[in-house]
Amino acid sequence: MRLEDLSWPEVKRAKLAGKIVILPLGSFEQHGPHLPFTTDADIVTGIAWALERKRPGKILLLPTLWAGHSTHHLAFPGTLSARQMPYIQLLVELCGCIAGMGARKVFLLNGHGGNDVPARAALRELKGAFPKVRFVFASYWSLAAEAVKAVRESGPGGIGHACELETSLMLHLHPDRVKMSRARRDGPKHADVYRRVDMQRARPVYFVEEFHEMSESGVIGDPRLATAAKGKRFFEGIVAGVLAFVEAFSKW
């Protein structure tokens, strides 16, 4: 069930302690010259809706939080971002409302890499405030890493931002919003393993960079390899990977 479709008496009768409440996290930020600002929110919403359709009796799906922590994209006009501390507080406040409804298992399903650090900090605050509620956080590409690896054609550095993965997913979900004629490869070109950017390989060293320091166009990776057919395969593999976690989480 989706919260946006319910009235308050229906929520009261829903017995949320026996359901998994999913809050999708997106962003409103630049995605190169070929994808819209809503790309992260569009993709994570599509995944979340697919999960709810598969398990409507087990999941209460919340509306996607479209604003994210995207300060590293602010050099590109149009990006809307919350700074880190306000974003942490926003997650704490929203999750507190969810806990107040009687939920005992809350899953923050992430669709934007910049949300990772503040979301983890929010979970630390929530643990202290609501010790009987289980809050978890995961990005869809992490839960479906093997499925993504099986479909991608790009080498190291090919999947980062507005890339083969995200562009293929958008061609599958919202083809009318993709301008493939403007797609181009961009991003760090050095071979330094400590600075390489790829969604499937965590850097061994942590440091902060602004996005315009890594990419002139706002793209990291190779969106030219994207196709709608590949997007369908990515999407189905991602939904299966995230659903497997949901099933496991329901038994925690």
Describe the protein:
By secondary structure, this protein is α/β, with parallel strands linked by helices. It contains eight helices and six strands; from the N terminus they run αβαβαβαβααβαβα. α2 links the parallel β1 (20-25) and β2. α2 (39-54) packs across α8 (228-249) and α3 packs across α4. The longest helix is centred in the last third of the chain and has 22 residues, at 228-249. The model has no long low-confidence stretch (mean pLDDT 94).
Descriptors:
globular; about 40% helix; Rossmann fold; about 250 residues; alpha/beta; single chain; 4-stranded parallel beta sheet
Give the proportion of residues in helices.
Answer: 25-40%
Distance between the termini: 21 Å
Low-confidence stretches: none
Strand order of the largest sheet: 2-1-3-4
Q: Kindly name the structural category.
A: alpha/beta
Mean pLDDT, to the nearest integer, reads 94
The CATH architecture: 3-Layer(aba) Sandwich
Classify the beta-strand content into a percent band: 5-15%
Q: Estimate nothing, just give the exact number of structural domains.
A: 1
CATH class group: Alpha Beta
Q: Helix and strand string, N-terminal first? A: HEHEHEHEHHEHEH
CATH topology: Rossmann fold
